[in-house]
Write a structure and sequence with these properties.
Elements lengths: L1 H9 L1 H21 L3 E10 L6 H4 L8 H12 L2 H10 L14 H11 L1 E4 L13 E8 L4 H100 L7 H7 L23 H14 L8 H12 L4 H7 L12 H11 L11 E5 L12 H31 L13 H6 L5
Antiparallel strand pairs: 1-3, 1-4, 2-3
Helix pairs in contact: 2-13, 4-7, 5-6, 7-9, 7-10, 7-12
Length: about 425
């Protein structure tokens, strides 16, 4: 090791020369290499009051942490980045290369220039909730405008998406509520039709029963009249055979056959029914004539008049008439007041999406003070170290070559390969 260090020291000019040469190359690279700059923007969750109007709508729930995550998804979205790239091609002229398509130029930008940084998921502290977006760009690019513009574009796109989602949810809720109200209206109409049908059916059944009863009563009264006529004819025949023309009683007939004074007042108590023929032929024939001339027996039974009254009342069902004449039937729907109130609330819902603040931009991109690449001091230091290592390696290689040549006999032919100074520095050859 001492011989190696001694050999390197003897060749210190070579080592210093390599180091200085590499240092000059590093300085030249640090001065001439294209500069690259880096800007960043930090987003944090919005305040609770910023999303209060949206959350109080009871339609769309969006906590601040979820809003930040949605914006982060939009920032990391390939489609969102490509859309911003296409919409602002003037800012990305330096990224476009001849012979490359727009998508290929964007792919290079998306892969190498922009980076999304999220907090460590192992940290549960709410203060660590943030999203940082970094952009590296060369000198001729307006990186500040690109990064701030893309952040604003992503926030606006997510705000528009939230507005579209809210609109779809509200429309779906309104459609659902309308379906429930329509179902309640359909149920009401079905119940109404069923009620009317039952009422009409009941009236029809009652009318049929009354008409049957009326027909049975009339048949019964007709049969009673026929029976009365037959009974009168028989009584008339008996009265004629007995010579009874005027109404009389059995006791009167017995007294008429006796002689004596006729000025007698008699009171007769009898619990037996006097036969009809004692009415006499005159009264019986008069009754028979009246019965034969009768055209209707309805007046003989009060029930016929009652049935006529009931049939007249059944001609019009006032309850059915009222049901059919209802103008605004929606007021009779059951359990729809909360649904109508919800429909009115949703239709009057007016959330200004243009002023909706999804996230708080904690730090916007600012013009950088210095480039991040190349790092001049580091480049020069590394070049000096590389030159030193290279000089040492060259010195070691020369040392080993000289040692190998010392192991072989000396030949005058080797004089042209090494200078006299080199022979003085080395040990004498034998």
């Amino acid at each position: 090791m001492f011989e190696l260090f001694h050999s390197i020291w003897r060749q210190k000019k070579l080592v210093i020369g390599c180091t200085l040469f590499a240092g000059l190359v590093g300085v030249g690279y640090a001065l001439l290499a294209p500069r690259e700059y880096q800007v960043s923007s930090v987003l944090r969750p919005a305040a609770i009051n910023e999303l209060d109007a949206l959350n109080r709508s009871e339609v769309y729930k969006l906590p601040p942490a979820d809003a930040l995550a949605k914006v982060g998804t939009q920032l990391d979205s390939y489609e969102a980045r490509l859309s911003f790239f296409k919409a602002n091609q003037a800012l990305f002229k330096e990224f476009q290369r001849p012979g490359q398509s727009l998508e290929q130029s964007f792919e290079a930008f998306n892969r190498d220039s922009i980076k999304l940084i999220l907090p460590d998921p192992k940290k549960s502290d709410s203060l660590s909730s943030y999203i940082r977006l970094e952009l590296q760009y060369p000198t001729d690019i307006d990186g500040v405008a690109i990064l701030n513009g893309f952040v604003d574009y992503a926030v606006a796109a997510e705000r528009e998406q939230v507005g579209a989602d809210l609109k779809v949810i509200v429309n779906n809720r309104l459609t659902e509520l309308k379906g429930k109200i329509d179902a309640a209206r359909s149920n009401y109409e079905t119940d109404k039709a069923s009620k009317i049908a039952k009422l009409l059916e009941g009236d029809k059944l009652k009318r049929a029963q009354l008409e049957d009863e009326l027909g049975a009563l009339r048949l019964q009264m007709k049969m009673e009249r026929s029976n009365r006529l037959a009974e009168l004819a028989e009584a008339i025949s008996i009265a004629k055979s007995m010579g009874i023309k005027s109404p009389t009683t059995p006791s009167s007939m017995a007294d008429a056959g006796r002689s004596g004074s006729s000025q007698v007042m008699r009171t007769e108590v009898n619990n037996q029914r006097i036969p009809l023929y004692f009415m006499g032929t005159d009264a019986l024939e008069a009754e028979r004539t009246a019965l034969q001339q009768r055209t209707s027996d309805d007046f003989t039974n009060s029930r016929v008049a009652e049935i006529g009254k009931e049939l007249q009342l059944l001609e019009v069902n006032r309850q059915v008439e009222v049901l059919n004449k209802r103008g605004n039937e929606d007021i009779f729907l059951q359990d729809v007041e909360p649904l109508r109130a919800e429909v009115a609330r949703l239709r009057s819902l007016n959330i200004d999406m243009s002023s909706l603040k999804l996230v708080t931009i904690d730090r916007r991109a600012q013009e950088p003070l210095s480039p991040i690449k190349p790092k001049k001091i580091l480049v020069v230091a590394l070049s000096l170290v590389a030159g030193l290592v290279l000089g040492i390696m060259v010195a070691l290689i020369r040392h080993f070559i000289l040692m190998r040549r010392e192991a072989v006999p000396y030949s005058p032919l080797d004089d042209h390969r090494f200078s006299r100074r080199e022979r003085k520095d080395d040990e004498p050859l034998s």
